[in-house]
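pasting for the record
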Amino acid sequence: MAYNLLKGKKGIIFGALDENSIAWKTALRCHEEGAQLVLTNAPVALRMGEINKLATTVNAPVIGADVTSSDDLKKLFEESMKHFGGSIDFVLHSVGMSLNMRKGKSYTEIDYEWSKKTLDISAMSLHRVLRTAWDLDALTEGASVVALTYIAAQRVFPDYNEMADAKAMLESITRSFGYYYGVKKKVRVNTVSQSPTRTTAGSGVKGFDGFISYAEKMSPLGNASAEQCADYCVTLFSDLTKMVTMQNLFHDGGFSFTGVTEAVINQMEK
């Protein structure tokens, strides 16, 4: 059901790769709620993914941008403002990549050059996005920026590797830049810490199937789906959350504050 929560608003969605991605689901929900969109991803992801199909569905242009390139991001924001005929009301940062995880390196044996790339793509990119918008005065008064994160930023999940470090940095940037952008222009910057979700990226984590089953048992409400995460992002882009900023918001069915559940105890006692 649509409520016109984003009627008249204009936003950029980073990271829609295919129909399984949270960014893809969020773009669909934003469109349903009345928003105009620009879709963006890295050039290699544009070649590998199916973003043009999404673009047709939500009537949005696709503008490629490497999030590690300030020049690319400047071009993205400038072309987006030209397309919209004005400034931007919301941004979704759904970007992450771990070379060490992809190559099967354990956390104690990470390749440091690969880790630099992980931190640059998965975390520093948010700072670069915000800095670009700041320099161009691209965001409207009271705009909303949301980045997707995971609870491995606070707790140990061994196979999440250096991506946990990246998410911790991402959340720190959210707080720090959120302060300055709030003072300057009432812009809200938050992270959403989502349940383990069957996306193309998430499914690449070692032991993912077992963990998603465990998280389901550990969450009083069960795991939150990609569609439900999209719903939550819509509320954060809307005018209903104008006083929420610099927060890491858990969207995980209660997993983050549950010590143990009867389902897990029963499983262990079998």
